[in-house]
Design brief:
With about 110 residues, the chain is of the alpha+beta class. It is about 50% helix and about 20% strand. It is built from three helices and four strands; from the N terminus they run αβαββαβ. The protein has a four-stranded antiparallel β-sheet with strand order 2-3-1-4, covered by helices on one side. A hairpin with a 3-residue loop joins strand 2 and strand 3. Helix 2 packs across helix 3.
Length: about 110
């Protein structure tokens, strides 16, 4: 009897909690681009961040923020159109060894 009551309560509690946790990711107006270096990066690569900044400046794209972490660089942009333009510009500037993709997770 107790398990019959617990299951619906868990469902009613877990689904709204998951929706609340996902809300910031899906509701934010900013767009993100993630740039990761090939292989495993053990040290912070300031040169990658500098190359990203230069490539965006040459493409006349003004990011809202650039963050360097262990996995690579995240660029925050104002909208999806800027993100699309940034992805194509960064692919041309950095070349094929780097993975450049849209990112939905704010850093």
């Amino acid at each position: 009897m107790a398990t019959q009551l617990i299951r619906p309560l868990l469902f009613v509690g877990i689904v709204p909690a998951a929706a609340l946790l996902a809300w910031p990711v899906f509701s934010q107006p900013d767009s993100y681009v993630r740039i990761t270096a090939p292989g495993t990066v053990t040290a912070l690569d300031l040169r990658l961040m500098e190359r990203v900044e230069i490539a965006l400046k040459e493409a006349r794209i003004a990011p809202s923020g650039i963050v360097l972490d262990r996995e690579g660089v995240s660029v925050r942009l104002t909208d999806a159109e800027a993100r699309h333009h940034a992805i194509s510009s960064l692919k041309r500037a950095l070349g094929s060894p780097y993975t450049i993709a849209p990112d939905a997770t704010p850093r």
